[in-house]
Automatic annotation (TrEMBL):
It is found in: Cytoplasmic vesicle, Secretory vesicle, Synaptic vesicle membrane; Endoplasmic reticulum membrane; Recycling endosome. It comes from Bison bison bison. Keywords: Calcium, Cytoplasmic vesicle, Endoplasmic reticulum, Endosome, Membrane, Metal-binding, Repeat, Synapse, Transmembrane, Transmembrane helix. The keyword Ion transport does not apply. It holds the Pfam family PRT_C. One of its GO terms (molecular function) is calcium ion binding. One of its GO terms (biological process) is regulation of neurotransmitter secretion. Its main location: membrane. Coiled coil: none annotated. The gene is MCTP1. This is Multiple C2 and transmembrane domain-containing protein 1. PANTHER family: C2 DOMAIN-CONTAINING PROTEIN, DYSFERLIN-RELATED. Residues 20-138, 169-286, 320-441 form the C2 domain.
Length: 716
């Protein structure tokens, strides 16, 4: 039965009318409003007809949002360049009560820009008949222009009663689609951006500063900027998760970077993944629409690795047969079998205690998000509870053993986005297998404690040789990254960190100069003798040998109890100050200073801020390698330095340089699309900086925050 009518009121939005329908189903119009979680609403989004044109070409790229009580509960895929789109998508929603109507909003997708509104409607759930499929036609309207004809949306809906225990399935209603569907992805799309050809000149000098944006659903990547060229060579790789069985559309746009004003649009193109065969690399030369030039890409679709979520009773590692299979899969004998599959991670999210009360009732509705690089899974929500029990098991495939597991607790909020309750970041190499631990929850900056602890049990199984080899290739980029913002405190912190690294070199230069000046005759005499001995007997292999001796010296200092590693309280204090500044900025967001009003200056300051961070991080990573901050990486450095020492001792330098030069000159001939990388920099990128060391530090639980103790105190 197809029916619709218009609600007379201020909004002029369509709604299902309350008309008598002769059916076998039971109407819920007179039924008392239900308790939370009592109804399941199954919706099939069929199609749209005669939708509004929002693009210059007279078409639109429509997608649909469903909202209940201002909370987005479903978002459809995008249908490109179509005013009569066919979706045929299904959504299963649990409805707390029937007072809140279902809002349907249609938008035109604009990559890189704000999406255009195409109309809205709402569905009165109290007028639906229980247990009966119903076809619905909704007329789209714009509240600001009620006379405009914006087309119609066709749905099929069925409302069925549900038991209250199933309310936990609503856990997917308050995060982005990335969080909501992350445990359903079916494959990986690997894109290598090779180059651009004959791009459009956007600057007055006849050149451009091009970069490329990629988008698949809510996954976004941005390439590096190539200055002053119309034929850029990027050689960058990005991995997307593929959620749809049939593939999907990757939107690609090229832009020209302009400091001080809005970036110029160069052109766009798309990749229809459903047209590409799997387990095969495709070389694509894509013509840019609405612009000039081509982009050259390599695209590979591969089957997904195992990423799953289950109840505590379903445990892969406790099943003897499955555990043996996993151990065999990562045994030393399978070194060269799928180098990207480094290891297996199992995370048991058991419970949390003493969480922060985020609601006015003095309770919270906590749920947990578990993240490893771009893999994200989440638990169900435990309502009205500060000591929730989830008892969920998450499994991930490890592609980089230097990854950091992030577990974040949120409070589900019906009227707005989820509230942050606490977070922990755990490097995989610091995990003790099979040990149930209470982790103190930290603030967003991971610098200090917040209220509550979370109990986790984590197991990591990996192949050490594969992990070592993967250390020498670029890290996986995250497609969800916070945008850089200008922060006075962050700029000061990065300046101080950089200054400290530079002062190490300055002090070393002063020390050497003091030897020349004979400030201390015994020290200068010893330095002079050492200089004569080293120069007279110098061989190239001595360079890695000295670094090897330094690593060994620090190792023996640590095991003898004379640890020379100092906790970086300066960085920790700076991070806490930055957090206070963030809170102040949130409260005084309307009071923007002069620096925030001048975009060009802000861009320059952000660039300086990031450069200082990179320089400081580089120096700190070198220091932390020799300080054995991450023993796995320090041992790997020892193995590499031993190999270099032996090679330089037995092989003449000219042969080594000859092999290096032949490899460099023939690399592009052997593999034209190889991504350039520097193994040393890739290695150092895995070593944490001092800021990350502070963020990854495990805090000790505070006995005064124990829930049991609080309860006793309250009784007294």
């Amino acid at each position: 039965m197809l029916y619709s009518c218009k609600l007379k009121g201020a909004c002029n939005l369509p709604v299902i009318c309350n008309k008598k329908i002769n059916t076998a189903g039971t109407s819920n119009a007179d039924v008392p409003l239900a308790e939370p979680g009592m109804y399941q609403l199954d919706i099939t989004l069929r199609r749209g007809q005669s939708l509004a044109a929002r693009d210059r070409g007279g078409t639109s790229d429509p997608y649909v949002k469903f909202k209940i009580g201002r909370k987005e509960v479903f978002r459809s895929k995008i249908i490109h360049k179509n005013l009569n789109p066919v979706w045929e998508e299904k959504a299963c929603l649990l409805v707390d009560h029937l007072r809140e109507p279902l809002y349907i909003k249609v938008f035109d997708y604009d990559f890189g820009l704000q999406d255009d509104f195409m109309g809205s409607a709402f569905l009165d759930l109290t007028q639906l008949e229980l247990n009966r499929p119903t076809d619905v036609t909704l007329t789209l309207k714009d509240p600001h222009y009620p006379d405009h004809d914006l087309g119609i949306i066709l749905l099929s809906v069925i409302l069925t009663p549900k038991e209250g225990e199933h309310v936990f399935q609503t856990q997917s209603l308050r995060l982005s689609d990335v969080h909501r569907k992350s445990h359903l992805w079916r494959g990986i799309v690997s894109i290598t951006l090779i180059e651009g050809r004959d791009l459009k000149a956007m600057d007055s000098n006849g050149l451009s500063d091009p970069y490329v944006k990629f988008r698949l659903g809510h996954q976004k990547y941005k390439s590096k900027i190539m200055p002053k060229t119309l034929n850029p060579q990027w050689r960058e790789q990005f991995d997307f998760h593929l959620y749809e069985e049939r593939g999907g559309i990757i939107d690609i746009t090229a832009w020209d970077k302009d400091a001080g004003k809005r970036d110029d649009f160069i052109g766009r193109c798309q990749i229809d993944l459903s047209a590409l065969s799997r387990e095969q690399t495709h070389k694509l030369e894509l013509q840019l629409e609405e612009g000039e030039g081509h982009l050259v890409l390599l695209v590979t679709l591969t089957a997904s690795a195992t990423v799953s979520i289950s109840d505590l009773s379903v445990n892969s590692l406790e099943d003897r047969k499955e555990r043996e299979e996993i151990l065999k899969r990562y045994s030393p004998l399978r070194i060269f079998h799928n180098l990207k599959d480094v290891g297996f991670l199992q995370v048991k999210v058991i419970r949390a205690e003493g969480l922060m009360a985020a609601d006015v009732t003095g309770k919270s509705d906590p749920f947990c998000v578990v993240e490893l690089n771009n893999d994200r899974l989440l638990t169900h929500t435990v309502y009205k509870n500060l000591n929730p029990e989830w008892n969920k098991v998450f499994t991930f495939n490890i592609k980089d053993i230097h990854s950091v597991l992030e577990v974040t607790v949120y409070d589900e909020d019906r009227d707005r986005s989820a509230d942050f309750l606490g977070k922990v970041a755990i490097p995989l190499l610091s995990i003790q297998n099979g040990e149930q631990k209470a982790y103190v929850l930290k603030n967003k900056q991971l610098t200090g404690p917040t209220k509550g602890v979370i109990y986790l049990e984590i197991d990591v199984i990996f192949n050490a040789v594969k992990a070592s080899l993967r250390t020498l290739i670029p890290k996986e980029q995250k497609y969800i990254e916070e945008e850089n913002r200008l922060s006075k405190q962050l700029l000061l912190r990065n300046f101080i960190r950089t200054k400290r690294c530079v002062m190490v070199l300055v002090n070393a230069a002063y020390y050497v100069n003091s030897c020349f000046d004979w400030d201390s005759p015994p020290r200068s005499l010893a330095a002079f003798v050492l200089f004569l001995f080293v120069v007279w007997n110098f061989e190239l292999y001595m360079i890695p040998l000295v670094l090897l001796l330094l690593l060994t010296w620090n190792y023996f200092l640590i095991i003898s109890g004379k640890d020379n590693r100092q906790r970086d309280t300066v960085v920790e204090d700076m991070l806490e100050d930055e957090e206070e500044e963030d809170d102040k900025d949130d409260k005084d967001s309307e009071k923007k200073g002069f620096i925030n009003k001048i975009y060009a200056i802000q861009e320059v300051c952000i660039s300086v801020q990031n450069i200082l961070d990179e320089v400081a991080s580089f120096g700190e990573r070198i220091k932390n390698t020799f300080n054995w901050t991450v023993p796995f990486l320090s041992w790997l450095a020892i193995v590499a330095l031993c190999a270099f020492t032996v090679i330089l001792y037995f092989i003449p330098l000219r042969y080594i340089v000859l092999v290096w030069g032949i490899n460099k000159f023939t690399k592009k001939l052997r593999n034209p699309y190889a991504i350039d990388n520097n193994e040393l920099l890739d290695f150092l990128s895995r070593v944490p900086s001092d800021v990350q060391v502070v963020q990854y530090q495990e805090l000790k639980p505070d006995p005064s925050h124990s829930p049991c103790k609080r309860k006793k105190n309250n009784l007294g």
